[in-house]
C-alpha cells in the first residue's frame, strides 16, 4: 500500500508506549493523472454551468431555482453564491443519487421507492414500483439493530403501549420519565463514567451543549473535519475557534503551545479555558482519532477534551464501548464523552457522559435540556434493550457475536477492496469505508450502476469532501453476510 500512511509513532513523545497495537491509517495521495482529469472534469462542468446560467438569465433555458423577485432585482442577490452555482449546474445532474425514499426498515437489505424525473432531476415522480431487497451499504447500522423484529422492536412496542410515543414536555417540566432515568444510569454504566444525560437529538447534543460549557474568552481547538454539529456548537458558544489539521498531533500541539504562550489576542491574558473537540471515527474519512496522544497532550497543556463518539460508540472496541475501549484507555481521562444513539443502537438522540458535576451542570445550563421535549419513550427503550444486549445483560452472547461479526466484516471487506486495487481511506478497523472515485462523472455513475445491481450506496462529493476527493462511502454492518459483501465488492469492481 502506498501513499501517506500514518503508523503508531507518537508525534511528540520519543517512545510509542501510548499505543498497545499498531495504529495504521491510509490516505493515498491522489494520483497526478487522476487529479488533472478530475480538475478538467470540474472545469468543463463549470464552463457549461456559466453557459447555462447565461441562457437562464435571458430566459432561453427554463430556470427552476430560487431567483430574486422581480421587484427586488436591484437588491444584492440573495441566492447567487458559488455553492448555489454548484447546486444548479453540477449537483442537479446527479441529484437522483440522494434523498431516495426507502419504504422498509433500513437493515442489511432495504426496499427503495422507484422515482423518475422528466425534467433533468429538478423534480421527481414516484412510479409506484418498489425496488426490493437492495443491499444497504449506506446506513450507520453498525451492529444491525435497525430491525423491526426481535427483542428491541418487541420492547419498543410494549413501551409504546405503556407510555405512548410522545412526551409533550421538557425534562425539567413533566417530561422526565422513569425510563429516561433508567436510560441515563445505563449509559453511565456502559461508558464507565459517573453520570450521563440523554437528549432527543444527536445534532442538538453537540450544538446546544458546547455553548453551555465554553463562551467568550475561551478557546476551542477543533479538528478540521469535525461534524457540522460540533462546528455549530463551537460557533454558537462565542468562543475563539482555532482549527488543527485532521488527526494531526503536531498541529494540535502547536496550537496548544501558542495558546498557552500567547494567551488571548491583544490582552495576552490566559484563556479562560481550552477545549479540544474531536470525534471517535470520522464519518467521511474512516479515520480513528489518535486518542492516546490527544489525552497525553490535553494533560500536558491542561486543556479539556470533548469526544464525539457518534460513529464509534457500539462500533469500536472489544466491548463496543467506543474509541476509549478500543485503545484500552480510562474514560475518566475524557472530560466530556458525547455520542449518539442513531447509529449502532438503531434509535435516535444523543448523550453526554462524564463526572456527576458536569452532568448536573448541563441539566440546568443546556438549552437542549431546558427547552427541548424529552426523548420519545419507545426510542429510549430501543436504546436500553440494544445497550443491554451489547453489554451481555440480556443473558445471551448476541451482543458479543454482533461485535465480533462487525469487526470480521470490516476486516474482510476492507481487505477484499484493497486486493482488488481500490484506493480506500481510513483505519483498517473502521467500519466506515471510503472508496475513492475522484472524478465528478463517477459520483453519479457509481451510485446509479450500483443501484441497478440492487446495492444502495452513499456517494459523496464537494462540498462534503475536497473537490478532487469524491468518494463512495460504505458503512459495514454486523448484519451483512459474506455473500452481500462479495456482491458489493464485485459490483464496485465492474464500475470503477
Ligand atoms: C460526528 C457526529 N456527531 C453528531 C451527529 C449528529 O447526530 P444525529 O444524526 O444523531 O442527530 C452526527 C451525525 O451523523 C455525527 O456524525
From TrEMBL:
<dbReference type="Pfam" id="PF00155">
    <property type="entry name" value="Aminotran_1_2"/>
</dbReference>
<keyword id="KW-0812">Transmembrane</keyword>
<keyword id="KW-1133">Transmembrane helix</keyword>
<dbReference type="GO" id="GO:0046513">
    <property type="term" value="P:ceramide biosynthetic process"/>
</dbReference>
<keyword id="KW-0808">Transferase</keyword>
<dbReference type="InterPro" id="IPR050087">
    <property type="entry name" value="AON_synthase_class-II"/>
</dbReference>
<dbReference type="InterPro" id="IPR001917">
    <property type="entry name" value="Aminotrans_II_pyridoxalP_BS"/>
</dbReference>
<keyword id="KW-0443">Lipid metabolism</keyword>
<feature type="transmembrane region" description="Helical">
    <location>
        <begin position="32"/>
        <end position="51"/>
    </location>
</feature>
<protein>
    <recommendedName>
        <fullName>serine C-palmitoyltransferase</fullName>
        <ecNumber>2.3.1.50</ecNumber>
    </recommendedName>
</protein>
<dbReference type="GO" id="GO:0046512">
    <property type="term" value="P:sphingosine biosynthetic process"/>
</dbReference>
<keyword id="KW-0746">Sphingolipid metabolism</keyword>
<dbReference type="InterPro" id="IPR004839">
    <property type="entry name" value="Aminotransferase_I/II_large"/>
</dbReference>
<comment type="pathway">
    <text>Lipid metabolism; sphingolipid metabolism.</text>
</comment>
<comment type="similarity">
    <text>Belongs to the class-II pyridoxal-phosphate-dependent aminotransferase family.</text>
</comment>
<keyword id="KW-0012">Acyltransferase</keyword>
<dbReference type="InterPro" id="IPR015422">
    <property type="entry name" value="PyrdxlP-dep_Trfase_small"/>
</dbReference>
<keyword id="KW-0472">Membrane</keyword>
<dbReference type="GO" id="GO:0004758">
    <property type="term" value="F:serine C-palmitoyltransferase activity"/>
</dbReference>
<dbReference type="InterPro" id="IPR015424">
    <property type="entry name" value="PyrdxlP-dep_Trfase"/>
</dbReference>
<dbReference type="InterPro" id="IPR015421">
    <property type="entry name" value="PyrdxlP-dep_Trfase_major"/>
</dbReference>
<dbReference type="GO" id="GO:0005789">
    <property type="term" value="C:endoplasmic reticulum membrane"/>
</dbReference>
<feature type="domain" description="Aminotransferase class I/classII large">
    <location>
        <begin position="132"/>
        <end position="488"/>
    </location>
</feature>
<keyword id="KW-0256">Endoplasmic reticulum</keyword>
<keyword id="KW-0663">Pyridoxal phosphate</keyword>
<comment type="pathway">
    <text>Sphingolipid metabolism.</text>
</comment>
<dbReference type="GO" id="GO:0017059">
    <property type="term" value="C:serine palmitoyltransferase complex"/>
</dbReference>
<dbReference type="GO" id="GO:0030170">
    <property type="term" value="F:pyridoxal phosphate binding"/>
</dbReference>
Amino acid at each position: 500500500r502506498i501513499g501517506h500512511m500514518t503508523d503508531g509513532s507518537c508525534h511528540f513523545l520519543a517512545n510509542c508506549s501510548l499505543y498497545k497495537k499498531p495504529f495504521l491509517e491510509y490516505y493515498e495521495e491522489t494520483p497526478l493523472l487522476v487529479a488533472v482529469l478530475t480538475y478538467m472534469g470540474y472545469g468543463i462542468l463549470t464552463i457549461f454551468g456559466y453557459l447555462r446560467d447565461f441562457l437562464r438569465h435571458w430566459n432561453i433555458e427554463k430556470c427552476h431555482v430560487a431567483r430574486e423577485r422581480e421587484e427586488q432585482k436591484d437588491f444584492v442577490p440573495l441566492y447567487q453564491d458559488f455553492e448555489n452555482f454548484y447546486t444548479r449546474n453540477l449537483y442537479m445532474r446527479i441529484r437522483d443519487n440522494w434523498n431516495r425514499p426507502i419504504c422498509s426498515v433500513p437493515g442489511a437489505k432495504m426496499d427503495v421507492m422507484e422515482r423518475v424525473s422528466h425534467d433533468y432531476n429538478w423534480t421527481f415522480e414516484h412510479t409506484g414500483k418498489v425496488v426490493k431487497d437492495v443491499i444497504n451499504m449506506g446506513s450507520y447500522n453498525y451492529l444491525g439493530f435497525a430491525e423491526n423484529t426481535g427483542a428491541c422492536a418487541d420492547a419498543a412496542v410494549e413501551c409504546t403501549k405503556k407510555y405512548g410515543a410522545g412526551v409533550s414536555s421538557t425534562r425539567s417540566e413533566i417530561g422526565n420519565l422513569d425510563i429516561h432515568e433508567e436510560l441515563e444510569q445505563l449509559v453511565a454504566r456502559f461508558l464507565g463514567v459517573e453520570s450521563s444525560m440523554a437528549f432527543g437529538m444527536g445534532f442538538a447534543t453537540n450544538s446546544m451543549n458546547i455553548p453551555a460549557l465554553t463562551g467568550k474568552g475561551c478557546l476551542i481547538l477543533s479538528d478540521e473535519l469535525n461534524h457540522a454539529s460540533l462546528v455549530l456548537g463551537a460557533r454558537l458558544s462565542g468562543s475563539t475557534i482555532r482549527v488543527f489539521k485532521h488527526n494531526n498531533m503536531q498541529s494540535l500541539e502547536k496550537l496548544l503551545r501558542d495558546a498557552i504562550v500567547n494567551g488571548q489576542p491583544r490582552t495576552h491574558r490566559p484563556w479562560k479555558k481550552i477545549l479540544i473537540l474531536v470525534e471517535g471515527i470520522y464519518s467521511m474519512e474512516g479515520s480513528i482519532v489518535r486518542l492516546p496522544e490527544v489525552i497525553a497532550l490535553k494533560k500536558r497543556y491542561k486543556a479539556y477534551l470533548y469526544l464525539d463518539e457518534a460513529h464509534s460508540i457500539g462500533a469500536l472496541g472489544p466491548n463496543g464501548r467506543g474509541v476509549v475501549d478500543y485503545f484500552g484507555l480510562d474514560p475518566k481521562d475524557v472530560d466530556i464523552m458525547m455520542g449518539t444513539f442513531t447509529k449502532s443502537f438503531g434509535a435516535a438522540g444523543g448523550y453526554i457522559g462524564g463526572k456527576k458535576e458536569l452532568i448536573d451542570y448541563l441539566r440546568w445550563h443546556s438549552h437542549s435540556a431546558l427547552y427541548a421535549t424529552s426523548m420519545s419513550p419507545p426510542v429510549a427503550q430501543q436504546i436500553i434493550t440494544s445497550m443491554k444486549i451489547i453489554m451481555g445483560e440480556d443473558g445471551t452472547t448476541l451482543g458479543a457475536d454482533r461485535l465480533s461479526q462487525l469487526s470480521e466484516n470490516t476486516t474482510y471487506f476492507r481487505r477484499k477492496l484493497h486486493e482488488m486495487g481500490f484506493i480506500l481511506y481510513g483505519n483498517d478497523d473502521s467500519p466506515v469505508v471510503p472508496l475513492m472515485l475522484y472524478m465528478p462523472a463517477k459520483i453519479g455513475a457509481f451510485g446509479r450502476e450500483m443501484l441497478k445491481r440492487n446495492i444502495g450506496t452513499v456517494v459523496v462529493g464537494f462540498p462534503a469532501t475536497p473537490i478532487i476527493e469524491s468518494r463512495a462511502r460504505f458503512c459495514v454492518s454486523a448484519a451483512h453476510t459474506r455473500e452481500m459483501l462479495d456482491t458489493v465488492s464485485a459490483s464496485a469492481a465492474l464500475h470503477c
